[in-house]
Write a structure and sequence with these properties.
By secondary structure, the chain is α+β, with helices and mostly antiparallel strands. The protein has one domain (10-125): Anti-proliferative protein, N-terminal domain (Actin, Chain A, domain 4, Alpha-Beta Complex), CATH 3.90.640.90. The chain contains six helices and four strands; from the N terminus they run αααβααβββα. It has helices at residues 11-27, 33-51, 64-67, 77-84, 90-96, 139-144; strands at residues 69-72, 100-106, 109-114, 120-125. Belongs to the BTG family. It comes from Anthoscopus minutus. This is BTG2 protein.
């Protein structure tokens, strides 16, 4: 609360995403707590690096497609790289994690969906500073509308 203006760091968002993926690995009980710690650290570093130049608190949805972590019968390379640090192979990862998982890590909101038709659950939400970007469709909403390109911003016309 001592900060002024939009929060520039990605700490809580990345922590939420990392905690979620680690939690999925933990539920199967095949990975030790020590391994989970190493995995979490590796994933946190990888995401921080990956998002470094793709994080815009003033435009939270900009770059959303780039930040999206996705397992769609293909493992997200960031997850597999962190998992390789604790000796988890791809086949093991496929057994431990959902075969279809989408994780959206955006400024002020982290959410996920398991299964292509699953409902979207919010993991972390912070109050956004008031601004004019409320009308933009997120990567998530575009996907719900069947749009494929997260690079374009579709403007929603809101009829009152």
């Amino acid at each position: 609360s001592h900060r002024r203006g939009p929060r520039a760091d990605m700490v809580p968002e990345i922590a939420a995403a990392v905690g979620f993926v680690s939690g999925l690995l933990r539920t199967r009980g095949c990975v030790s707590e020590q391994q989970l710690q190493v995995f979490s650290g590796a994933l946190r570093e990888a995401l921080t690096e990956h998002y470094k130049h793709h994080w815009f608190p003033e435009k939270p949805f900009k770059g959303s497609g780039y930040r999206c972590i996705r397992i769609n019968h293909r493992m997200d390379p960031i997850i597999s790289k962190a998992a390789s640090q604790i000796g988890l192979s791809l086949p093991q990862l496929y057994q431990l994690l959902p075969s279809e998982l989408t994780l959206w890590v955006d400024p002020y909101e982290v959410s996920y969906r398991i299964g292509e038709d699953g409902s979207i659950c919010v993991l972390y939400e912070a109050t956004k500073p008031p601004s004019s970007y409320g009308g933009m469709l997120t990567c998530k909403n575009q996907m719900m509308l069947g749009r494929t390109s997260p690079s374009k911003n579709y403007i929603m016309t809101v009829s009152s």
